[in-house]
Automatic annotation (TrEMBL):
Heme binds at residue 452. Keywords: Endoplasmic reticulum, Heme, Iron, Metal-binding, Microsome, Monooxygenase, Oxidoreductase. SUPFAM superfamilies: Cytochrome P450 (SSF48264). It is found in: Endoplasmic reticulum membrane; Microsome membrane. PROSITE patterns: CYTOCHROME_P450 (PS00086). It comes from Tribolium castaneum (Red flour beetle). GO terms for molecular function: heme binding; iron ion binding; monooxygenase activity; oxidoreductase activity, acting on paired donors, with incorporation or reduction of molecular oxygen. This is Cytochrome P450-like protein. InterPro entries: Cyt_P450, Cyt_P450_CS, Cyt_P450_E_grp-I, Cyt_P450_sf, Cytochrome_P450_Monoox. Its cofactor is heme. Belongs to the cytochrome P450 family. The lineage of its organism: Eukaryota, Metazoa, Ecdysozoa, Arthropoda, Hexapoda.
Amino acid sequence: MGALALVVFAVTTLLFLIWFIRLVRKNNDYYKDIPGPRPLFFFGNVFEVSTTRDILNVMHKYALQFNGLYKIHLGPVRKLIIASDYKFLECVLSSMKILNKSEDYLYLRPWLGTGLLTSDGPKWKKHRKIITPAFHFQILEQFVEVFESGGNRFVQQLQKEVGKKSVDIYPYVTLCTLDIICESAMGISINAQFDDNSDYVRSVKAMCRITMERLFHLLEMNDVTYPLTKNYYTQKKSLNVLHNQTNSVINRRRKELENKTEAINVTNEDKADNNDTLFGRNKKAFLDLLLQATVDGRPLTQEEIREEVDTFMFEGHDTTASAISFAIYCLANNADVQAKAYEEQIALFGGNKSPAVTYSDLQSMKYLELVIKETLRLYPSVPMFARKTSEPVQYENIFIPEGVTVNIFAYGIHRDPKYFKDPEKFDPSRFETVDGKLPYAYIPFSAGPRNCIGQKFAMLEMKSTISKVLRNFELQPATPTHTVQLAAESVLKSANGVKIALKNRN
């Protein structure tokens, strides 16, 4: 009996090795025309990146070495194509054959389901079509009041830090953008800036952290072993809070719309339990538009609405916070740029620190828009994003089979001297002469059919918040000198904070 078991084990092992060797050889054939760094036997290139702070430097080094297109090995079988070559990016981002997201986005599905960010195929196309009208300028104009309200609370919080030699502004900014996105998406105020320890705020932070950590921890990568980890139970608790909150708001708003009420009459009890605010007689939160939308002639289901609201919450929270934080950092460390941006504010509002800012005013902030664009070039909120081929693709002499992950390295092409002179220099004026002939060289919001649907919303929010900071504070470098340590997490962050100094403007 023992001998038979030994024979079975030996035969099984041999068959597995034969299958594995064939798989490796087949995989190598797919990528044979794409160069890349030499891999370590079995482990590939995984040891070159020990922390999230290493990722961008290592990838950028190889992008320059291999002219923007190379492969890296993640273990013995899995490989990724890393792309910051313009022609290749144009091929990928403009293609209707490479629209699906990679497996890495699956870690978001427990929270976001198959909303617009994570869905593929027919569902993505249908939902993209019905959500697009929500970002028409007439709708966006209604959100300016929300941006201004959140920004006022932000300025109030920053006043506590005036006079200090160094303050990390990132935690303040994230709470500000969370306030704004909650009110824009669901029409509720969670007062995150004054209550950063609420269950909802803590749950959002926990899910953003867990989503990224699952990419790097062996036990958490696999759904089979994930329940053995602490994060699994933290996630269950957090999702319960997040989904219950979203479902509760959806149910109540659905009932109000069914009763044909145009405004939310909040009772004292509702205020105590939910701290909801009235959005306004003629204004609609993102949720209202979803409740009135149809797909294939039917209303969206409760789950579909929750997925899209939660997706909007996720995408419009950390990404915008990253951009605002780095923009304020750049302004603090470039006095000449800050002076020009402040002069624009003076031209629009005189010395009024708290004017009634309109949509038209935000559109008129042309120089501030250049500052934001240059910030997003150097510090793209999403420095890389991945697509997966749903069918074979031919690019010049390179054949890419179905099921291959292509990593779009936005950070790399943004700092490529072929497309941006003196790429490490912060120079907003470079965007004064951009003619649009190379649309895939600047991709902070992606590009092509799957570009960011909320980019106009984000630009307005960033202008509103940053302009308010400029009018109220003189931004100065932190003391001692602070240089951000970039880390590629769920969004681009600084491992050592984003530190500046604040001085009240006269």
